[in-house]
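Troubleshooting log. The previous structure file for this entry was overwritten by mistake, so regenerating from the original sequence record. Sequence copied from the archived sheet and checked twice against the printout by T.R.
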Amino acid sequence: MKMKYFKDTDSLYIDLSENPSSESTEISEGVVLDYDKEGKLVGIDIDNASNKVDLDRLIVSSLPGKVETDAA
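Regenerated output below.
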């Protein structure tokens, strides 16, 4: 899973899978869920993110895998 914030567009993309998206559904204004060809959720796109989520802090808790950071 990867999360990336795009400051120039104020959007946050949460990439849940390596699989490509084949279908998207807007579930509320500016919040889009991306699905692969098998119907599995592969990503979440949040437009106007600074007004919808707290971008100042991220807490990761009890994940079974490795947690990495990218300062870019």
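The chain has no helices and five strands. Archived copy saved in two places this time.
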